[in-house]
Amino acid sequence: MISQAKTLVTKGARENRARPAIDPLFRSAAVEFGNRVIGVVLTGYLDDGTSGMEVIRRCGGTCVVQDPADAAYPDMPQNVLNHVKVDHCVPLAEMGSLLTRLADRERGVRIAVPDDIAVEAKIAQRVLSDLESVEFLGAQLPFNCPGCGGVLWQMKVGNHVRFRCHTGHAYTAATLLAEQTAKMEETLWVALRMFEEHKNLLVKMGAEGTASPSYAERVEQSNIHIRRIKAMLHSNTAAVDPLL
Question: Which of 104, 142, 115, 147 is nearest to 14 (CA)?
């Protein structure tokens, strides 16, 4: 992130499953430099950069994206185009000359930073992180943060929806779904291990004659659960997000 004209790499809650992350970087740059900022989003998966580009636009900066047709992975630039009014959409070959022209132009009068943007920038710096701050940003939901288990709040600017917990984790809808999928898969692997260990113990006790007469039935019940969990894991892996 940017603070006092310096680039900082700090520890803290992840945003969109990453730290450092593009959205807090864009947000802090917009707070620091306002309409002097030029945000650029290139090829990439999911929708990282969309909320950051919206912040740059709201602070008077310039928004540039790579033409999705020119990108190896068009998700990121396409999501920006879907949610943000960008200033330029060009292929990579034209990006250098465009940025040169933009860097040389005159800037207008800087506008005030909106309150919600300032609050989120402070959260990312770990200066501010509490219930009052996130309640100011959005409405509480009956969902838990996959990063810490805390309650999530929904934030919406235009038609772009994001989620944040009071400890600082933040997600777009796409990354929240991807993180929930990863957590579910992790939980299923733990359940599979426990059922297999339980079955193996029952088998061992039966072989040694220390199990009750019903141990064979209990082994079969464990095998049923094991098969079900394996089927769920196979199905989940087949449809998993490319970043997981």
Answer: 147
Q: Is 166 helix (H, G, I), strand (E, B) or coil?
A: coil
Percent of the chain with pLDDT over 70: 93
Q: Could you read off the pLDDT of 215-226 as tens digits, one per residue?
A: 788 889 999 999
| Domain termination residue (choose one: 172, 200, 227) | 172
**What is the pTM for the complete model shown?**
0.75
The secondary structure element, H or E, covering residue 40 is: strand 38-41
Q: Which residues pair with 152 in a beta bridge?
A: 165
Say how many domains are in the chain. 3
CATH of the domain at 82: 3.40.50.180
CA atoms in the 13 A half-sphere facing the CB of 35: 9
In a domain, 120, yes or no: no
60: in domain: yes
Does a structural domain hold residue 116? no
For residue 158, the enclosing domain spans 126-172
Q: Pairing between strand 151-157 and 160-165?
A: antiparallel
pLDDT tens digit sequence for 52-90: 999 999 999 999 999 999 999 999 999 999 999 999 999
Each residue's pLDDT tens digit, 196-217: 999 999 888 877 776 566 778 8
The letter for the amino acid at 47 is: D
164 and 191 co-located in one domain: no
Burial of 162-197, coded b for 16+ CB within 10 Å and e otherwise, reads bbbbbbbbbbbebbbebbebbeebeebeebbeebee
pLDDT-derived band at 14 (thresholds 50, 70, 90) equals confident
Residue 211, domain member (yes or no): yes
DSSP state for residue 211 in the 8-state scheme = S
